[in-house]
Write a structure and sequence with these properties.
By secondary structure, this protein is of the alpha/beta class. 30% of the residues lie in helices and 25% in strands. This is tRNA (Adenosine(37)-N6)-threonylcarbamoyltransferase complex dimerization subunit type 1 TsaB. It is an enzyme of class 2 (transferase). GO terms for molecular function: tRNA N(6)-L-threonylcarbamoyladenine synthase activity. InterPro entries: ATPase_NBD (IPR043129), Gcp-like_dom (IPR000905), T6A_TsaB (IPR022496).
């Protein structure tokens, strides 16, 4: 197995290679506005670090969010392109699950990433491998009762200490954690989600109300 993992659902542009035993190369850069510029060079970098070519990859794993539309589509479209070009399967992993796996906490806790608009993408976990709730997007104050007293990880938790007073790192997901989680699940025969985006809310760009269609005479 040579698993190529990548995630662009958060400000981190992160890539890793997993050889079936462990991560052999990884790269992470935080820049919310340059996902498209940074992703392919990061793939080249981890392949060079591992001394391998892209055609050695046997499967691709992509973080499916939740996350903003622009960032998510960069990673998922790239993963799909690699899968088609190489003729290998492409799997999805929830980005929040990757953060939970990296946190390696015991007992219930929360993962929350920054959804902007003073909201967070979040979910509750029983442990680092077991999600208890579906990913959701909410204002921190609206979920305070559901997360009260629980440890929390992720940029969203760190941004709102009143709601998440026990927040700590990791701040962003790493493809290394995503790769380890995916490899573990695949080895156990578990089915991973399809590589389709979890947006959770409508895109900012919408057709204006009362839009008048102009037809040629």
């Amino acid at each position: 197995m040579l698993l190529l993992a990548l995630d662009t659902a958060t400000p981190a542009v992160t890539v890793a290679l997993h050889d079936g035993t462990d991560v052999i190369a990884s790269s992470s850069q935080v820049d919310a506005r340059r996902h498209g510029e940074l992703l392919l060079p990061a793939v080249d970098r981890v392949l060079a670090e591992a001394g391998l070519r892209l055609d050695a990859v046997t499967a691709v794993v992509a973080g499916i969010g939740p996350g903003p539309y622009t960032g998510l589509r960069v990673g998922l479209m790239t993963a799909d392109a690699f899968g088609l070009a190489l003729g290998v399967p492409v799997h999805g992993v929830c980005t929040l699950d990757g953060l939970a796996f990296a946190a390696d906490l015991e007992g219930p806790f929360v993962v929350a990433t920054d959804a902007r608009r003073k909201e967070v993408y979040w979910a509750r976990y029983a442990d680092s491998r077991t999600r208890l709730t579906d990913p959701a997007v909410d204002r921190p104050a609206d979920i305070a009762g559901q997360v009260s007293g629980l440890p929390a990880v992720g940029a969203g938790a760190l941004l709102y200490p009143d709601t998440f007073p026990r927040a700590h790192e990791p701040e962003h997901v790493s493809a290394a954690a995503l790769a380890r989680l995916a490899a573990e699940k695949l080895a156990a025969g578990e089915e991973l989600p399809a590589p389709r985006p979890l947006y959770l809310r409508r895109p900012d760009a919408q057709v204006p109300k009362n839009y008048k269609v102009v037809t040629p005479k």
